[in-house]
Amino acid sequence: RERERERVERVTRVGRSSRFSSAGARRHTFAMATGDVEMESAAPTGSGSNAESHTRVTDLPLDVQQSILGSLDWQSLPKAAMACSSWSELVRRHESSPGCGLEWSHAMFRGSPAKSPLLRGGPKSVPGAERDFVRGLLDRSGYLDKSTRPDLVVVTVTPSWEPKLQLIADAFLELLPNRRSVHVVCCVAVGIIGTDESGVVHEIDDGSTEADAIAVALLHLGQNQRVFSVAERNSSARQRRKKHVDSSDEEIDRTLSKMEAFMKGSVPEAESGDPAQRCRAERGILGLLVGDNVYDVSDMKTKIEGRFGCIHLMGGLCGYDTRKQAVYYSSPESRKLEEEARAAARRDTAEGPQTRSAAAEGGRPWKRPRISACALFVCNLRSTRASYRGIKQLMPDYRVEVAEADPDGSKVCSLRQVAGDGRVEEGPPVPIYQVLRELEEVHGSLHGVTFGVKRRSLVSIDSQDPVATADDGTDLAGHLPATHVRTQVESVDIVRGVWDSTSPGTSRLEAIVVPLDLGPQDVCSFYTYSAQESLRELGEILDTLGTQEQRIEGSGCFGGFLVICNARGTYLHNGKQNVESNVLTSALPNTPVIGFFANGEVGPMPFREYFAAPRGGEGGESGEAQHVNTVLQGNTSVLTLLRRP
User: Fold this and answer.
1) Dihedral sign, Cα of residue 346, residue 350, residue 354, residue 356
2) Is 58 helix (H, G, I), strand (E, B) or coil?
């Protein structure tokens, strides 16, 4: 074991040495890697050389050699492949294996730029200080020690970092060795979620004692995955009116077409005519959507779901001031377009202005377009995505007795109480005014109370789960596993009350109107939201990954994204900090997380709640794929865990 450890250290030192170009230098590299340092000075090949008397790495079993190569980082592997043809083949197999890659590097700096010795000068700090600061973040993240290069960089910052964010993003592109292929997205929010170097997840929001920080995550992918990205440029109303809008829509369609072609080539199920198989293939796409306004985020979400209905999409609305940019984005395609725009600006400046308007703008330097929304996609990746809000039942179950149609939904007139064993109590139905009176006595008031109907549905939060939904009463046996079938609540606000007109002078409610399609025998109740139920709901989501021991040993989670509503955090948990992040750290101690506090969250309906997909071929019926599985909502937390196959 000691000899093997020394050989591994020797291989690592050789792999990190300078690159060799000649055949003799490559032979020397292999000699150093195998421990036969006298190979070069021994007798020529073919004569009785004593070089064969030494044990070489190539004499070891293939699985041992594969383990040695697997311990090398992504910069040393190409150099190790130059040693000999057998190692070149082993490196090729290692890089094409499903387990290669899928790693996460992270770092965090807590405090404002003024607390950094390098950035203390503000806008007048030392030139190149941002580069040195980013180099320190990269060194602490240990991104060079991973098995594959980082393909995606996500940066979240609080508002105090916004003046420095563009320089920091440019520094990442300048320092990363694979700067030509990496995708970078940075967002500014009133609060962020990040993981420090010790693996502890922190929530930094405006209710915290220290409300400034910057968090960085680098996602390392394998050869089976690929990253795509699109962006929406912010155009003024005058440009839209004059039809001077740029071709961002064409770029989005072109990128989505490339992504569709990649999925068809790499996932055979994507070409299947079966909607369920196609939906399962699309769920292998993880999408991160961020933006600073609801219009561009909703528009981009509609475009994405028009091509990929079952994609695992999550994100939210960041930003803190509409006058300032909140999203910074860079991709290989966008950098190419920026270079072309710079060249065109230099060319126009050299040729000189041709008109008075051009002369007025001739002295203006080229400026990056403002990005209002962007989306990053990682194809062929397993993920677990779920939302939680914390719905709490206030009253016992009732069965609808009388419900009438109404232009705003259904008018509920009377209910029958359901016992704990599911038996409906006998006797006359309970009028709605009496139910509301009892509810007010229990809850104190009707403020924050919602009406909910229980539905039986197949809950699919993992990208490898079955995809189908069904209403209560539909047979889900057979091809649908019972472990995924849950009772969820379709919770809505009460639209209005209908007063009793048969008894003048009374203020008694005859019925309530809810925006639901109700019928007799539907089971319903009244609900509200609480912090304790939110944590219990998060625990139910984590329980789908297995027991505590199974989560630590075999869950396969290597990173995650978390978006929390601004109304949650310290406001929801009575001033306590890091409540939800502490639950994640204890349940998944080796899973770093990055995210932000949002003004609106993009994700699925909460784990305990039901979302009725539109009828007419758009899903929601038994055995059909549920195409509409992502909504823009509020007062929720959206968690996405990245998992190995």
Assistant:
1) positive
2) helix
The bridge status of strand 371-379 relative to strand 631-633 is unpaired
> What residues of the chain score a pLDDT lower than 50?
16-30, 32, 34-52, 236-246, 356-362, 469-480, 614-628
SS (H, E, C) 345-387: HHHHHHHCCCCHHHHHHCCCCCCCCCEEEEEEEEECCEEEEEE
Measured distance CA(55)–CA(60) in Å, rounded: 8
- Which stretches within 516-559 are classed as H helix? 531-543, 548-554
Cα–Cα distance between 603 and 563 in angstroms, integer? Answer: 9
Given this model, what pLDDT does residue 25 score? 46
Report the candidate in 592, 615, 478, 586 with the shortest Cα–Cα distance to residue 106. Answer: 592
Question: What 8-state DSSP symbol labels residue 52?
Answer: G
Six token digits for residue 82: 């130059």
Which pLDDT belongs to residue 39? Answer: 39
Tokens 């220290």 sit at which residue?
210
Q: 380: which 2 tokens? A: 């062929």
Q: Among residues 484, 465, 469, 491, which one has the least CA distance to residue 390? A: 491
pLDDT digits (tens, 9 = 90+) for 121-150: 655 567 778 899 999 999 999 998 888 889
Tell me how far apart the alpha carbons of residues 535 and 134 are, in angstroms, rounded to a whole number: 35
- Residue 104's nearest CA partner among 517, 486, 561 is 561
Kind of pairing, strands 226-233 and 398-406?
unpaired
- Angle at 496 (CA atoms; ends 491, 500), nearest 5 degrees: 125
